[in-house]
């Protein structure tokens, strides 16, 4: 187990959140949940940025393919 240091204002906020939570949980559990959510959010953001770069790089080709597909579907 590791120990982390937080300032008084953050500790008070943490205590307030744990007391007002509809689910009874400890400060440690709240921090653990928040950290996991933050990590997942950052992973998602990085993936979306990478995907966006790929789409931007190939946007002309994708647009041509989309137009061809729509034209093909219109003929059917």
Strand and helix layout:
Elements: H1 8-20, H2 27-57, H3 59-75
Summarize the structure.
The chain has 76 residues and is an all-alpha fold. The protein is built from 3 helices and no strands. It has helices at residues 8-20, 27-57, 59-75.
Explain what you see.
The protein is mainly α. It contains three helices and no strands. The chain has helices at residues 8-20, 27-57, 59-75. It is elongated. The chain starts with 7 loop residues before the first helix and ends with a helix. The model has no long low-confidence stretch (mean pLDDT 93).
Structural class: mainly alpha
End-to-end distance, in Å?
Answer: 64 Å
Q: Regions with pLDDT < 50 over 5+ consecutive residues?
A: none
Q: How much helicity do the residues have? A: over 70%
Percent of residues in beta strands? under 5%
Count the E strands: 0
The radius of gyration is: 23 Å
- Figure out the total of helices: 3
Q: How many domains in all?
A: 1
Round the mean pLDDT to the nearest integer and report it: 93
Features:
single chain; 76 residues; 3 helices
